[in-house]
Amino acid sequence: MTRPMRGIVHTLRDLARSRPAIRLWMGVLALIVLVALFGPLMAPQDAFAINPLAVLQGPSAAHPLGTDEFGRDLLSRLLIGIRPTMLVALGATAIAAAGGTTLGIFAAYGPNWLGTTIMRGVDVMLSFPPILLALLAVGFWKSGVSSLIIVIGILYIPHFARVAQAATLQVVRQEFIEAEHSMGAPYRRVVATGILPNILSPLVVQATLTLAAAILLESGLSFLGLGIVPPEPSWGQMIGTARGYLGQNPLYVLWPSACLALTVLAINIIGDALRDHLDPRLRQV
Questions:
Q1: How far apart (Å, rounded) are the C-alpha atoms in residues 80 and 56?
Q2: 67 — phi, psi (to 5°)?
Q3: Which one of 4, 15, 30, 161 has the largest count of C-beta atoms within 10 Å of its C-beta?
Q4: 132 alpha-carbon distance from chain centroid
Q5: Distances in Å between the alpha carbon of 253 and those of 114, 258, 278?
Q6: Are 54 and 10 in contact (CB under 8 A)?
Q7: Tell me: the pLDDT tens digits for 233-273?
Q8: What SS3 class is residue 94?
């Protein structure tokens, strides 16, 4: 395990010890991750099996959460539907973190003209709502997990770039960076050993915020029919379909909405707690 990763693990451990209430939300998030990994194995029935005799039924022994408009088991589809959502969110966050951090470091540590060009481009992208840009991009690409990962990842690169640029500007003014320059250290070494480990904390917080935002954005696109392709389920797609059957089975829309809200809430609470824990000014309040 690398030193930055060990630092993240220690930070999470310290956070859990100092704020016991966060343990509950960490447990919720860990459970969600386990379901995303092993959902198909946990599903009690075939999530794609159509049963015309069990259409839009309420909870029962055979179907604990009821059925959808094709008689498919909702519990099984919920357990499977989290996987594409988490794949999109994690993949998009990874792309955004890698691209945005690189651009932010270049903008703060490179020539002035390069930094100005990068940050003006970042400002232009930040001036548009992500859902609007996502709708424009997805409209020209085929729907699916890979397309959503790329589109959403690119949309959130500016957020990481802004955070990385601000954090790097603070680090490059430190004496140890000047000492490395005076000893003739190459720029690549300064970035890898001097800058990147010292800007990791705000980037981790930004990653949690981006993860939650990517989940909501993917769910919104799937809700509009521009995300995950049926019959593969996703929570946003299930909510979009269920709104047409509120009169027949109101629980149909409740279950995926509750799961989506709980996931985003857990990530946001952990992200806020990380921000408070890593920022000494907020910790003293």
A1: 19
A2: -130, 165
A3: 161
A4: 18
A5: 49, 9, 38
A6: no
A7: 899 999 999 988 888 888 899 999 999 999 999 999 888 88
A8: helix
Q: Tokens at residue 8, please?
A: 């993240």
| Cα–Cα distance for residue pair 74/80, rounded to 1 Å | 10
Q: State the first-to-last Cα distance of the chain, in angstroms, to the nearest integer.
A: 33
What tens digit of pLDDT does each residue of 202-231 get? 898 899 999 999 999 999 888 888 888 888
pLDDT tens-digit map of 66-102: 999 899 999 999 999 999 999 999 999 999 999 999 9
DSSP 152-215: HHHHTHHHHHHHHHHHHHHHTTSHHHHHHHHTT--HHHIIIIIIGGGSHHHHHHHHHHHHHHHH
Q: Tokens 């839009």 correspond to what residue?
A: 56
pTM comes to: 0.87
pLDDT reading at 285 higher than 50: no
**Diameter of the chain measured on Cα atoms:** 78
Contact 84, 232 (CB under 8 A): yes
